[in-house]
Write a structure and sequence with these properties.
Helix content: 40-55%
Largest sheet: 2 strands, antiparallel
Strand content: 5-15%
Number of helices: 13
Distance between the termini: 166 Å
Number of domains: 3
Shape: rod-shaped
Mean pLDDT: 87
């Protein structure tokens, strides 16, 4: 029998595929595309990570030191830009984000010494330690007046003697031993050596000196001055300033204190040369001498003319003088005179004895 059906002539085309096989092929192509995208993202992520790591911890280690000054009020972004400009960090934005995510700051204004090409962690650590403090050194010896202290203060370039005196005489900073109605801190600034950082000004210095004085006076018992020596704490400080101004050797302090207390108790004029010198403006004549004409100086500080203590201290007393004022040595002395070249005094109970001591001192070539 003849074949009625013939195969379709082959034209070279792929035979039709089942739907399932077609879907598998399209899914494969999608997976391949996704794989390529993932690979690209991985490469990009690794590259970005390496870039960030290179910014955070640059290769080659830290370089040369550079001085970086951060002005007051500078933001973290501003600090980041300063650091980038100086080459401390390689990228300001990267440093800013590093601080945000790792934590750090706010950073203090001031001067820093940092290294170029530093790891950001090291830079943050250095900034958190704070700026380098450059100290000015001020030494105030015992026995100086406010005016004399101000002259030493002006030796510090950034300080002004006028501003120091303005603060010390205005009453804006006060000692706990300063009576009402007395604004001057004469005699109430403790003599010591002070280290002053760049943030401290004249007011800060005065405050520190007053706080130190109050601490020492309180430690010595000045709050109990009235029961101990019959004087107010401020009056006892005035006595300490007289002792400081008159004594030249440590052994004389408590004895001079006794003479002052004895004269106060007997309502005698104190007749202390140092008060006359203070009344004359604090400039003694050559050799520290006081002339008879000087004793007529018209001033409430002249204890040759005015009874009792001067109205304020005449100098800053040190700890030893403050202690002597509260603890006078036992004795009936009413007079003293310079008796030795080293400044040692001779003490007397009568005017006759005192005059003899003066004559003896002169005979030895000592100018009393």
């Amino acid at each position: 029998m003849s074949k009625l059906l013939f195969d379709q002539e082959h034209d070279g085309a792929e035979p039709p595929q089942p739907p399932e096989q077609h879907e598998r092929r399209r899914g494969g192509r999608l997976l391949a595309a996704i794989g390529i995208v993932v690979a690209v993202l991985l490469v990009a992520t690794v590259a970005a990570g390496l870039w960030v790591r290179g910014k955070i911890d640059p290769s080659g280690g830290p370089g040369e030191e550079v001085a970086v000054s951060i002005p007051e009020g500078t933001s973290t972004a501003g600090i980041a830009q300063l650091l980038a400009d100086e080459g401390v960090v390689s990228d300001a934005s990267a440093f800013r984000y590093y601080v945000r995510f790792k934590g750090g700051g706010p950073f203090q204004a001031g001067d820093y010494t940092l290294r170029q090409n530093s790891a950001m962690g090291d830079v943050v650590a250095a900034l958190e330690e704070g700026p380098e403090l450059v100290f000015d050194r001020l030494t105030v010896p015992e026995g100086l007046t406010l005016e004399e202290i101000s002259e030493r203060v002006e030796e510090i370039e950034r300080f002004s003697s006028e501003r120091f005196l303005e603060v010390a005489e205005s009453g804006s900073v006060r000692s706990r031993y300063q009576p009402e109605g007395v604004d001057s801190l004469e005699g109430l600034l403790f003599p010591d050596t002070y280290q002053l950082d760049a943030r401290e000004d004249e007011e800060a210095l005065v405050t520190r000196m007053v706080e130190q004085f109050d601490a020492v006076a309180t430690n010595l018992g000045y709050e109990r001055a009235e029961e101990q020596v019959g004087l107010t704490p401020y009056e006892a400080i005035v006595v300490a300033s007289l002792v400081e101004s008159e004594a030249r050797v440590p052994e004389d302090r408590a004895k001079i204190s006794r003479v002052i207390h004895n004269r106060i108790e007997k309502d005698m004029l104190l007749q202390i040369d140092a008060t006359v010198i203070y009344a004359m403006g604090g400039e003694p004549r050559e050799g520290g001498r006081v002339l008879f004409s000087d004793l007529e100086t018209d001033s409430p500080y002249n204890t040759y003319k005015n009874p009792g203590l001067p109205p304020t201290p005449i100098a800053v007393p040190g700890r030893a003088a403050l202690e002597a004022a509260l603890n006078p040595e036992e004795g009936d002395w009413l007079y003293y005179v310079k008796y030795e070249e080293d400044g040692t005094h001779a003490f007397s109970t009568t005017n006759e004895e005192h005059n003899r001591r003066i004559a003896e001192a002169k005979a030895k070539g000592v100018n009393p």
